[in-house]
Amino acid sequence: MPMSFEPTPESCLSRAWLEQLVLRSHTFDAEERVGEVFDQLQEFADGFYGIVTGGAYLGLISRMHVGLLLSGRFGYALYTKHAIREHLLEDTVIVRPGDPLLNVLDRALGRTGPAFHHDLAVVDEDGGFLGVLPMPTLLRLQNELIAEQARRTEEDRHILESRELQLFRSQARLRQSEGRFGIIFEHSPLGFALLTTAGEVQACNRRFGEMLGITRKGELPDLNEYLRPADQANLATILRGFENNLEGESPHTREWRLEALGSDPRLLRCDFHWIQETGQVSLCAQDVTAQRRLEQRLQQKEKSALLDTLAGGIAHELNNKLLPVLGYAEMLQLRARDNAELSGWCDVIRQSTVEAAELTGQLLQLSRPPALEPRSCDFVTILQAAMSMLRFRLRDAGCEPVVDFPSSPVPLRADPAQLKQVVVNLCFNAIDSMAGRPQPKLHLSLLHEEEGICLRVQDSGTGIPEENLARIFDPFFTTKGVQQGTGLGLSVCFSIVQQHGGVIEVESTGPEGTTFALWLPLSTEEPASADPVPAGALVAPVGRQSLVLVVDDEPVITSLVHEALRSRLECRVVRAGSTEEALEFLESFSFQLVISDIRLPGRNGLSLYEECCQRWPDTARRFLFITGDPGSRELHTALERTGCPVLRKPFGMDALTAQAAALLPKDGERRSPRPRPVIAPDHASAL
User: How far is the C-alpha of 20 from the C-alpha of 93, rounded, in Å?
Assistant: First the structure.
């Protein structure tokens, strides 16, 4: 019967398995005589048999052992009457259900001599004899067990080889991953650092070191050396939060200003993350200095655009109201030449109007300076003139300026007066910031940079607080007292520089002082401009042959211009309140001069000029613009391209008549007017 038992090193000989393995054996009572046992054994085959007493196993005998005992000359006589229990086999191995197979093999195979070949006695839990376990069967189990162990060894070898291969591949992937990480870590545009919860930097990449101005490879910085005291405390709070919460707090993001070695302070966006596996804090730093500067410029540009619209509209309306005040005051003064008191009152009115117009001009400068008058100039000469103006102010402040200007001229196409105003305003602010300092220092340097020039104004003042940096170019923003400043200086500087196509910004600031940087591009563009006619020039009447069209949506202004041209130049005048109405008159009359406001309801004055150029080119050559404000920068640029003269409200009557006389044709130039239709009654009074 084949065995269903498949041995393994872990097998135990259960009763069920033993019943398959043992051979049933005859048993003899321990008190039976040896001779009797021998006689009974003659009926059985060679083998081993159990000896029991009272049903309990006592030992084993074999047919061969009993035969040898009785053989010989005296054996039978000596032992035949002995009890069989006196002649049991020695070193018999007893097997019980549940014994480990390996233990049974060790005991059975550990015997020596004849006992090695003895079968094993199998005894149940109560000590009853179940049979014998033949030694050949046990050896067969051993062979199967060796085969099983060999198979397992082979499987283990294959598993080990597979695991070694997996380990090799894992190590290769790990090396590749470490290589990729090293490249990304070292060459990342972001700065990375690993911190302990005490704030010690344990590792950092090259970019992080560059942000802090560290050039030596492998040098680890101490963050507290670069942070302000308040930021040091903030950093310690963040790290303590990670340390107290082993699960790791949520990420933290801060923007801190770091004092980098050998360079200007940098504004860094710092993101902190907890690495639970290593108990470290990951710091990711991004330099946002340029980004914040750009955002400030964009914000300033948006504010400037808003002021452009607001201030331009207000200035236009104010100048429209000031023009008749100034104009009629001049005309009243002409008629009151013999009345000294009345003439004096007219002077007061004129002077007050001029001062009000200057205030309006300052309001315009909040959004943009007046129209540029660019010309080829030497920036060094402008700077020297500005320093000359500041001489007494610098002396009173006890400040000896240090200037670093090129010895050769620096050619520039710009408005010298406006650039000088920018330099003076910057120096005034620098002098005010150094008030109370024991040794005030003002340093001006001029360098060529990137297709332009860069002027730096550096002081040794108290610096600008960080919370004010975003507002210093805002109109009316000031930290000075009520009697010391209006908050317009830097706003005007920003507008002038912007109109020149340049950039002005705070390059650095701190307790040791502030540096303003002014960059201006080099330009070769030749702007078109007309030579103004000097106000107050004596002009002769041109006679009633000249017909002038005056276009303005303010009736009081058209009335004033009408009266000035009629009384001083003896011209005939037609008045219109809009572009559409002016075009109707142009289709009916041949005008020798058109005087038009720029801001008109519906189509503006520039649109009227463009249509004149297409339909009446001769009339377009005699076009005079009057304006309280030209409007947007695009409109201002288009106005300059026309080449037409411009009178800015409020203007004097002398300037008006002089400019009109210069544009009106002389007697030899007069043309025959177009056929004149019948004039409607509401227009007849205008002539």
Answer: 19
Q: Is the dihedral of CA 648, 649, 650, 651 positive or negative?
A: positive
For 47, how many CA atoms within 13 A lie in the half-sphere containing its CB? Answer: 19
**Separation between Cα atoms, residue 61 and residue 81, nearest integer Å:** 16
| Residue-by-residue DSSP string for 358-404 | HHHHHHHHHH-PSPP--EEEEHHHHHHHHHHHTHHHHHHHT---EEE
How far is it, in rounded angstroms, from Cα 432 to Cα 436? 9
E-strand spans in 72-180?
A: 94-95, 99-100, 120-123, 129-133
Contact assessment for residue 446 and residue 453, using Cβ atoms and an 8 Å cutoff = yes
Burial of 565 (0-12, 13-18, 19+ CB in 10 A): buried
Measured between alpha carbons, how far is 557 from 323 in angstroms, rounded to an integer? Answer: 7
Q: Cα separation of 270 and 255, whole Å?
A: 6
Cα gap 644→621, rounded to integer Å: 8
Q: In what order do the strands lie in the sheet with 120-123?
A: 94-95, 120-123, 129-133
Cβ neighbours, 10 Å, residue 119: 25
Measure the CA–CA gap between 264 and 525, rounded to whole angstroms.
Answer: 35
- The closest of 598, 609, 594 to 660, measured between CA atoms, is 594
Place of tokens 């993350």: 273
Residue 515 · residue 507 · CB < 8 Å: yes
pLDDT in the model for residue 355: 76
SS3 334: helix
* Residues 605, 461: Cα–Cα separation, whole Å: 50
Q: 3-class DSSP state for residue 174?
A: helix
C-alpha 458/C-alpha 402 separation (Å) is: 10
Q: What is the pLDDT of residue 673?
A: 46
**What is the distance between the alpha carbons of residues 35 and 25, in angstroms, rounded to a whole number?**
19
Residue-wise DSSP of 202-214: EEE-HHHHHHTT-
Give the other-Cβ count within 10 Å of 195's Cβ. 22
In angstroms, the CA 446 to CA 411 distance is: 13
pTM for this entry: 0.44
Taking residue 103's Cβ as centre, other Cβ atoms within 10 Å add up to 12
Nearest to 17 by CA among 9, 7, 25: 7
Render the burial of 630-653: b for 16+ CB within 10 Å, e for the rest. Answer: bbeeebbebbbebebbbbbbbbbb
Cβ(231)–Cβ(239) below 8 Å: no
- Residues in the chain where the model's pLDDT stays below 70: 1-5, 246-250, 260-263, 304, 307-308, 359, 361-372, 449-450, 476-489, 522-545, 630-633, 667-687
Whether residue 640 contacts residue 528, with contact meaning beta carbons closer than 8 Å, is answered with yes
Neighbours of 244 (CB within 10 A): 9
280: helix, coil or strand?
Answer: strand
CA trace torsion 587, 593, 598, 604 (10° rounding)? 10
How many Cα neighbours within 13 Å face the side chain of 27?
Answer: 21
Core vs surface per residue 403-422: b (16+ CB within 10 A) or e: eebeeeebebbbbbebbbbb
* Under 8 Å between Cβ of 19 and 36: no
Residue 605 to residues 368, 372, 547, 630, Cα–Cα distance (Å): 21, 20, 19, 10
What's at 432, amino acid-wise? D
Name the residue with tokens 């610098």. 394
Q: What percent of the chain has pLDDT over 70?
A: 85
- Number of Cβ within 10 Å of residue 619's Cβ equals 19
C-alpha–C-alpha distance, residues 687 and 314, integer Å: 32
At residue 17, the 3 state secondary structure works out as helix
Q: What angle do helix axes 289-335 and 489-499 make, rounded to 10 degrees?
A: 100
Rounded distance, CA 348 to CA 552, Å? 27
Amino acid identity at 360 = T
User: What values do phi and psi take at 419, rounded to 5?
Assistant: -65, -35
